[in-house]
Amino acid sequence: MAVTNQTARLVVLISGGGSNLQSFIDACGGDNSDLDAKIAAVISNKPEAKGLDRASQVGIPNIIVDHRAFDSREEFDANLGDVIESFAPDLVILAGFMRILTPNFVNRFIGKLINIHPSLLPAYPGLHTHQCALDAGDAEAGATVHFVTPELDGGPAILQAKVPILADDNASSLAARVLSVEHKIYPTVAQWFCSGRLEMKNGQAILDNQVLGQTGRTFSQDGER
Ligand code: GRF
Cα 218 to chain center, whole Å? Predict the structure, then answer.
C-alpha cells in the first residue's frame, strides 16, 4: 500500500477554511518540497468552504459533494467514496472535514485514511476540544494525527504536538496556537506515509518498523524526521 517508487497522489477532504490544506499545498510545492506528493483533488461537502479557493488558486481540481443532496449518510458516503476513488489516491487526508463517516466508508479506505484532531488524544475526542482543555485546567493542549478507524477520533495515533495553555487563553487564542503546530505535523506524517515509512497494520500505527504507542510520536520543534 505504501508508495515508494512514484509520486504519491493525495486527495484532501475539507469543510471550511482549509488552513491545513494550505500547509499541504505549500509542502508539495517548489523544488525543495518537504512532501514528495501531488494533491490530485480537493473535495468539500460545503459549497462555501473557503479552502476551495485555495485549491483553485493553484489549479488543483476541486469538487463539491454536498451532503444535503443525499437522503442518507450511507448514500453520501458511497458517492463521496466513488469521487475519491476516481482520483486514485494513495492517501486520503481529512483536513477539517466536518462529517462523521460511516464504517463502510472508513473500511473502504482503511490504512490510507488519516485525520488531524485538535486535542492530545485520547483526551477530548469530538467537538469543542479547546474549551474542554481550558475547563479542565490543563497546562497543555495540542493536536494529534491519527489513522482513521470506525471509532470517532479513536484510530491509532501517529504524531502529536503539544502547546502550552497560557493564563489569558480563550478557546480561539488556544485554537490558533494549536493550528500553527497542526500545519507542521500533518504534512510531516503524510511524508512518512508517502515515503513508505508509515503504515497501519493490525489496528496499529507502525513507523520505521516500530509500533507506536497510544499517543504516537511526539513532535519536536527541532524538526521531525
Ligand atoms: C483543525 O483544527 C483540525 O484539527 C480540525 O478542524 C480544523 C480545520 O481547520 N479537524 P482548517 O480548515 O484546516 O483551517
Answer: 16
